[in-house]
Protein backbone atom coordinates (compact mmCIF):
# COMPACT_ATOMS: atom_id res chain seq x y z
CA UNK A 1 0.00 0.00 0.00
CA UNK A 2 2.79 2.41 0.93
CA UNK A 3 4.59 1.48 -2.23
CA UNK A 4 1.59 2.16 -4.35
CA UNK A 5 1.02 5.51 -2.61
CA UNK A 6 4.61 6.62 -3.30
CA UNK A 7 4.26 5.66 -6.92
CA UNK A 8 1.08 7.64 -7.15
CA UNK A 9 2.78 10.64 -5.60
CA UNK A 10 5.59 10.42 -8.06
CA UNK A 11 3.20 10.13 -10.91
CA UNK A 12 1.37 13.23 -9.77
CA UNK A 13 4.56 15.33 -9.52
CA UNK A 14 4.45 17.92 -12.34
CA UNK A 15 7.25 17.73 -14.94
CA UNK A 16 8.93 21.10 -15.43
CA UNK A 17 10.18 21.73 -19.02
CA UNK A 18 13.46 23.62 -18.68
CA UNK A 19 13.85 24.22 -22.40
CA UNK A 20 13.92 27.82 -23.63
CA UNK A 21 11.57 28.78 -26.45
CA UNK A 22 13.25 28.80 -29.90
CA UNK A 23 12.67 32.55 -30.39
CA UNK A 24 14.32 33.26 -27.07
CA UNK A 25 17.43 31.24 -28.07
CA UNK A 26 17.75 33.14 -31.33
CA UNK A 27 17.47 36.47 -29.55
CA UNK A 28 20.08 35.45 -26.99
CA UNK A 29 22.54 34.45 -29.72
CA UNK A 30 21.98 37.78 -31.49
CA UNK A 31 22.67 39.75 -28.32
CA UNK A 32 25.87 37.80 -27.59
CA UNK A 33 27.12 38.14 -31.19
CA UNK A 34 26.46 41.88 -31.19
CA UNK A 35 28.36 42.27 -27.95
CA UNK A 36 31.38 40.27 -29.21
CA UNK A 37 31.48 42.24 -32.48
CA UNK A 38 31.37 45.53 -30.62
CA UNK A 39 34.27 44.46 -28.41
CA UNK A 40 36.31 43.38 -31.42
CA UNK A 41 35.83 46.78 -33.06
CA UNK A 42 36.95 48.73 -30.01
CA UNK A 43 40.37 50.46 -30.25
CA UNK A 44 41.61 48.71 -27.15
CA UNK A 45 40.91 45.29 -28.66
CA UNK A 46 42.62 46.15 -31.93
CA UNK A 47 45.65 47.47 -30.07
CA UNK A 48 46.04 44.22 -28.19
CA UNK A 49 45.67 42.12 -31.33
CA UNK A 50 48.99 40.53 -32.34
CA UNK A 51 49.62 39.33 -35.86
CA UNK A 52 51.46 36.03 -36.25
CA UNK A 53 55.19 36.35 -36.84
CA UNK A 54 55.77 34.71 -40.24
CA UNK A 55 59.43 34.02 -40.84
CA UNK A 56 60.90 33.73 -44.35
CA UNK A 57 62.25 30.26 -44.84
CA UNK A 58 66.02 29.98 -44.95
CA UNK A 59 66.02 28.40 -48.42
CA UNK A 60 64.03 31.34 -49.85
CA UNK A 61 66.33 33.92 -48.26
CA UNK A 62 69.39 32.12 -49.58
CA UNK A 63 67.88 31.87 -53.05
CA UNK A 64 67.08 35.59 -53.20
CA UNK A 65 70.54 36.53 -51.92
CA UNK A 66 72.15 34.30 -54.55
CA UNK A 67 70.15 35.98 -57.29
CA UNK A 68 71.26 39.43 -56.11
CA UNK A 69 74.88 38.35 -55.93
CA UNK A 70 74.71 36.69 -59.36
CA UNK A 71 73.21 39.79 -60.96
CA UNK A 72 75.95 41.96 -59.43
CA UNK A 73 78.80 39.81 -60.80
CA UNK A 74 80.14 40.54 -64.28
CA UNK A 75 82.32 38.17 -66.26
CA UNK A 76 85.79 39.56 -66.89
CA UNK A 77 87.35 39.15 -70.33
CA UNK A 78 91.01 40.07 -70.84
CA UNK A 79 92.76 41.14 -74.01
CA UNK A 80 96.21 42.23 -75.14
CA UNK A 81 97.07 45.06 -77.54
CA UNK A 82 99.92 45.03 -80.02
CA UNK A 83 100.86 46.18 -83.52
CA UNK A 84 102.14 44.51 -86.66
CA UNK A 85 104.18 46.26 -89.34
CA UNK A 86 104.29 50.01 -89.80
CA UNK A 87 101.22 51.66 -88.33
CA UNK A 88 100.47 55.37 -88.53
CA UNK A 89 97.91 55.50 -85.74
CA UNK A 90 98.86 56.39 -82.18
CA UNK A 91 98.94 53.19 -80.09
CA UNK A 92 98.16 54.98 -76.80
CA UNK A 93 95.05 56.53 -78.35
CA UNK A 94 94.13 53.18 -79.88
CA UNK A 95 94.37 51.44 -76.49
CA UNK A 96 92.27 54.14 -74.80
CA UNK A 97 89.53 54.13 -77.43
CA UNK A 98 89.38 50.32 -77.52
CA UNK A 99 88.74 50.22 -73.76
CA UNK A 100 86.13 52.97 -74.03
CA UNK A 101 84.32 51.06 -76.77
CA UNK A 102 84.39 47.63 -75.16
CA UNK A 103 83.21 48.90 -71.77
CA UNK A 104 80.66 51.40 -73.06
CA UNK A 105 77.17 50.82 -71.62
CA UNK A 106 75.82 50.70 -75.19
CA UNK A 107 78.15 47.92 -76.27
CA UNK A 108 79.05 44.30 -75.50
CA UNK A 109 79.24 45.13 -71.80
CA UNK A 110 75.45 44.76 -71.87
CA UNK A 111 75.85 40.98 -71.91
CA UNK A 112 77.42 41.24 -68.46
CA UNK A 113 81.08 41.47 -69.41
CA UNK A 114 83.93 43.72 -68.24
CA UNK A 115 86.84 43.97 -70.68
CA UNK A 116 90.32 44.48 -69.24
CA UNK A 117 93.59 45.03 -71.09
CA UNK A 118 96.51 42.89 -69.92
CA UNK A 119 100.15 42.73 -71.01
CA UNK A 120 100.04 39.03 -71.90
CA UNK A 121 97.88 35.92 -71.79
CA UNK A 122 94.62 37.63 -72.73
CA UNK A 123 91.48 35.81 -73.79
CA UNK A 124 91.95 37.45 -77.18
CA UNK A 125 94.63 39.58 -78.85
CA UNK A 126 93.74 42.92 -80.42
CA UNK A 127 96.25 43.79 -83.11
CA UNK A 128 96.52 47.07 -84.99
CA UNK A 129 98.09 46.02 -88.25
CA UNK A 130 99.56 47.59 -91.34
CA UNK A 131 96.94 47.10 -94.04
CA UNK A 132 99.22 45.23 -96.44
CA UNK A 133 99.99 42.61 -93.78
CA UNK A 134 96.38 41.53 -93.13
CA UNK A 135 96.65 38.58 -95.58
CA UNK A 136 99.56 37.19 -93.54
CA UNK A 137 97.12 36.29 -90.75
CA UNK A 138 94.93 34.15 -93.00
CA UNK A 139 93.98 33.68 -96.65
CA UNK A 140 90.53 34.82 -95.57
CA UNK A 141 91.83 38.27 -94.60
CA UNK A 142 92.13 41.15 -97.09
CA UNK A 143 94.30 44.26 -97.12
CA UNK A 144 91.12 46.36 -97.52
CA UNK A 145 89.36 45.33 -94.32
CA UNK A 146 89.80 44.34 -90.69
CA UNK A 147 89.66 40.66 -89.78
CA UNK A 148 89.42 38.06 -87.02
CA UNK A 149 91.41 34.81 -86.99
CA UNK A 150 91.00 32.56 -83.94
CA UNK A 151 91.80 34.64 -80.88
CA UNK A 152 93.42 37.38 -82.99
CA UNK A 153 91.21 40.42 -83.60
CA UNK A 154 93.02 42.42 -86.28
CA UNK A 155 92.19 46.06 -86.98
CA UNK A 156 93.31 47.43 -90.35
CA UNK A 157 95.31 50.62 -89.68
CA UNK A 158 93.99 52.24 -92.88
CA UNK A 159 90.42 51.67 -91.76
CA UNK A 160 91.17 52.88 -88.21
CA UNK A 161 92.58 56.16 -89.53
CA UNK A 162 90.20 56.81 -92.43
CA UNK A 163 87.08 54.59 -92.16
CA UNK A 164 85.60 53.52 -95.55
CA UNK A 165 83.85 55.06 -98.52
CA UNK A 166 80.50 53.46 -97.61
CA UNK A 167 80.66 54.77 -94.03
CA UNK A 168 81.85 58.23 -94.99
CA UNK A 169 79.27 58.60 -97.78
CA UNK A 170 76.50 57.77 -95.30
CA UNK A 171 77.64 60.62 -93.06
CA UNK A 172 79.29 58.50 -90.40
CA UNK A 173 81.92 60.15 -88.20
CA UNK A 174 85.36 58.76 -87.41
CA UNK A 175 84.82 58.02 -83.72
CA UNK A 176 81.67 56.02 -84.39
CA UNK A 177 83.43 54.08 -87.13
CA UNK A 178 86.07 53.09 -84.59
CA UNK A 179 83.34 52.02 -82.16
CA UNK A 180 81.75 49.97 -84.92
CA UNK A 181 84.88 48.23 -86.22
CA UNK A 182 85.98 47.21 -82.70
CA UNK A 183 82.50 45.96 -81.80
CA UNK A 184 82.20 44.14 -85.13
CA UNK A 185 85.51 42.28 -85.00
CA UNK A 186 85.25 41.49 -81.28
CA UNK A 187 81.71 40.33 -82.06
CA UNK A 188 83.23 37.65 -84.30
CA UNK A 189 85.41 36.50 -81.38
CA UNK A 190 82.27 36.38 -79.21
CA UNK A 191 80.76 33.93 -81.68
CA UNK A 192 78.78 36.09 -84.13
CA UNK A 193 78.65 35.75 -87.90
CA UNK A 194 77.66 38.39 -90.44
CA UNK A 195 74.13 39.79 -90.72
CA UNK A 196 72.26 41.72 -93.40
CA UNK A 197 70.16 44.89 -93.20
CA UNK A 198 66.74 44.15 -91.67
CA UNK A 199 64.94 46.91 -93.59
CA UNK A 200 65.40 50.33 -95.17
CA UNK A 201 66.43 53.01 -92.66
CA UNK A 202 66.58 50.53 -89.78
CA UNK A 203 69.70 50.71 -87.60
CA UNK A 204 72.24 48.28 -89.01
CA UNK A 205 73.24 45.33 -86.85
CA UNK A 206 76.79 45.78 -85.62
CA UNK A 207 77.54 42.42 -87.25
CA UNK A 208 76.44 43.73 -90.64
CA UNK A 209 79.40 44.55 -92.90
CA UNK A 210 78.81 48.28 -92.63
CA UNK A 211 82.34 49.03 -93.81
CA UNK A 212 81.41 47.59 -97.21
CA UNK A 213 77.71 48.33 -97.73
CA UNK A 214 74.94 49.68 -95.47
CA UNK A 215 72.30 47.99 -97.71
CA UNK A 216 69.82 50.77 -97.00
CA UNK A 217 70.20 50.63 -93.21
CA UNK A 218 71.41 53.52 -91.06
CA UNK A 219 74.96 53.17 -89.75
CA UNK A 220 75.10 51.95 -86.18
CA UNK A 221 78.23 51.30 -84.09
CA UNK A 222 76.56 49.33 -81.27
CA UNK A 223 75.13 45.79 -80.98
CA UNK A 224 71.35 45.58 -81.26
CA UNK A 225 69.33 43.97 -78.45
CA UNK A 226 68.96 40.86 -80.63
CA UNK A 227 72.76 40.53 -80.75
CA UNK A 228 73.31 40.42 -77.00
CA UNK A 229 74.64 36.87 -76.66
CA UNK A 230 77.94 35.03 -76.94
CA UNK A 231 78.54 31.36 -77.73
CA UNK A 232 82.23 31.83 -76.85
CA UNK A 233 81.35 32.91 -73.32
CA UNK A 234 78.23 30.75 -73.02
CA UNK A 235 75.96 33.76 -72.58
CA UNK A 236 72.42 33.46 -73.90
CA UNK A 237 69.95 36.23 -73.07
Automatic annotation (TrEMBL):
Q: Where would I find the DUF3152 domain in this sequence? A: 56-215
Q: Which Pfam families match?
A: DUF3152
Molecular function GO terms recorded? metallopeptidase activity
The protein's name: Membrane protein
Q: Which organism is it from?
A: Candidatus Nanosynbacter lyticus
